[in-house]
Specification:
Elements lengths: L1 H29 L3 H14 L4 H13 L3 H13 L5 H13 L3 H8 L7 H10 L1 H4 L19 E7 L2 E6 L20 E6 L10 E2 L10 E6 L5 E7 L14 E9 L2 E7 L9 E6 L5 E6 L9 E6 L6
Antiparallel strand pairs: 1-2, 2-3, 3-4, 5-6, 6-7, 7-8, 9-10, 10-11
Helix pairs in contact: 1-2, 2-3, 3-4, 4-5, 5-6, 6-7
């Protein structure tokens, strides 16, 4: 009898600890601290691999921190258990594509019925042979100035390659994004050296990089007008869900400095506007946003400059 009571107490304590770990993970998840939530959910799954709530949130954390293998594991388990939502099926199919498992991905996409995206991905896979028909005619190599972190959105400006990166800026001061546990994005520039290689990338412009995310960016044909993505910050700019959204700013390049950055009038505290691209004539700005009225997630938008330059 004594042993039975001890066993019941141990089970109760274990269940209580498990619940506390899940609650801790959920609190981090609700604050969008996905990288910090991952070990909490992993601990729950280690004890109970059938916990679909933990699997769902862990899979989403992996997706939002770009962990391909982690996504495949979590979403795959949910699909196999018949517990996956439609959007989780879509995420799983996309992960299978990234891993090169195209036939399996087609099968998953065929079960996605919410909208036309599943059908579109199936068509894309079916046309893969046509798309890759001339692949052998090209050689694609990583640029030598890449870092172990995120490096993307490269553009040419004069003789420079400008790009956005989360590479480490300093070994003695670190400010990491709670979402990814990586350093915030900043704009960098590099150019060719005399030997045909590249100089070590340096921060682009003296004052474009703030303490939070800066970039991607684009530069108009006049070589002075710049549009760039930047995090909003400060109590006035906090969104209704308690986060700080991305905004697009317009400024002028003067020498190696950013002059008079202006917040564009379509920005909003409650949704993101990011990834600007300017047309050849400088009159149309294309960008991505999750503003209300879109098809879901980030959609593409355009804004046409008015005669008064607004």
């Amino acid at each position: 009898m004594k042993n039975l009571i001890q066993l019941i107490l141990l089970i109760s304590l274990s269940a209580s600890a498990q619940n506390q770990t899940m609650v801790a993970g959920d609190k981090l998840y609700s604050r969008k601290l996905y990288s910090a939530a991952i070990p909490k959910y992993e601990k729950v799954i280690k004890k109970d691999s059938s916990n679909t709530s933990a699997l769902s949130k862990l899979g989403e954390c992996y997706r939002l921190t770009n962990n391909i293998n982690g996504q495949a594991l979590c979403f795959g388990k949910l699909v196999n258990a018949g517990a996956a939502s439609d959007i989780q099926k879509l995420h799983y199919g996309k992960v299978l594509m990234e891993k090169g498992n195209y036939d399996q991905a087609k099968g998953i996409f065929s079960t996605y019925t919410t909208d036309s995206r599943g059908t579109s991905y199936i068509k894309g896979i079916t046309n893969m042979e046509k798309i890759n028909k001339n692949a052998d005619a090209y050689i694609v190599n990583p640029a030598p100035f890449n870092s172990p972190e995120d490096d993307f959105a490269a553009i040419m400006f004069a003789d420079n390659t400008i790009f956005t990166s989360s590479r480490t800026k300093s070994t003695w001061i670190t400010r990491n994004h709670g979402w990814t546990d990586k350093q915030y994005y900043n704009a960098y520039a590099t150019s060719r050296d005399m030997d045909g290689g590249y100089y070590k990338p340096q921060e682009f412009l003296d004052d474009i990089n703030s303490k939070y995310n800066d970039g991607p960016l684009c530069i108009a044909r006049d070589s002075t007008t710049i549009y760039f993505t930047r995090n909003s910050y400060g109590k006035r700019n906090k969104s209704g869900d308690g986060t700080y959204k991305l905004r697009i700013f317009k400024g002028t390049i003067v020498g190696n400095s950013l002059y008079m950055p202006q917040d564009l009038n379509f920005n909003n505290n409650n949704y993101n506007c990011a990834h600007p691209a300017i047309s050849y004539d400088g009159n149309t700005l294309y960008f991505a946003s999750d503003m209300p009225g879109g098809l879901g997630g980030m959609d593409l938008y355009l804004s046409i400059m008015q005669p008064d330059s607004s």
